[in-house]
Amino acid sequence: MKVLLFDIDGTLVLSGGAGLRAMNEAFFRVFGVRDALVNINLAGRTDTSIIKDAMQVFNIQFDDKKIEFFKQEYFELVKHEILVPGNGRRIMPGVKALLEQLSNISDVHMGLLTGNWETSGRVKLDFFDLGKYFNFGAFSDDSEWRDQLLPFAVKRFERLTGLLPEKSDIYVIGDTPADIMCAKPWQAVSVAVGASHYSVEDLKKYQPDFIFQDLTDESVLEILG
Length: 225
Ligand SMILES: [Mg+2]
Known about the structure:
The chain is α/β, with parallel strands linked by helices. It has helices spanning 18-31, 47-57, 64-81, 95-103, 118-127, 150-161, 177-183, 200-204, 219-224; strands at 2-6, 13-14, 90-91, 108-113, 137-138, 170-174, 189-193, 210-212. It folds into two domains: 2-15 and 88-224, HAD superfamily/HAD-like (Rossmann fold, 3-Layer(aba) Sandwich), CATH 3.40.50; 18-81. Magnesium ion (MG) binds at residues 7, 9-11, 44, 174-176.
């Protein structure tokens, strides 16, 4: 059995800036600050931690109600922004064929482990018709800390299937150091992809178990399948 937990942005798809545009606009509507996220590092972060950071930068008191309000605005905006043919909006190389092949292997189970909130993460995937491959996952709604997310995904998988994976059956696939590091506390297998925000050289420093230039590599299917 293999339980594969995929990151979304930079691993499966690029939204062409739809997420960032929607977040900036939602931040303006809710908190009155324009381009609030321009100087904040987004790659590999959870959405909640990004917004909390920005609130801190602009001295906005944090509370859960404000985050909930922000999320509702953001979800509406991202549905529209994903339709804009933004620069770079695409499925990452090799992803479509890989997901199709993996979905035909009976003891391979695919889920998500992403810093996106679930609703907006699914907006991005559904735009590319990839949402259908993933019926469980862990999201920024579960924790603002990425390295706390894995058990949420595994518990959902267990409830869904009645199966109990070993630690070594669980694979975390992502494009940033944060993806590699969030697998390690749980002794899951980390699979890094240097196709987006970070190069293979950058990612090697974090010692993933496997590393690929992108998901077109033929050995990806051998490792994940
Ligand atoms: Mg990513």
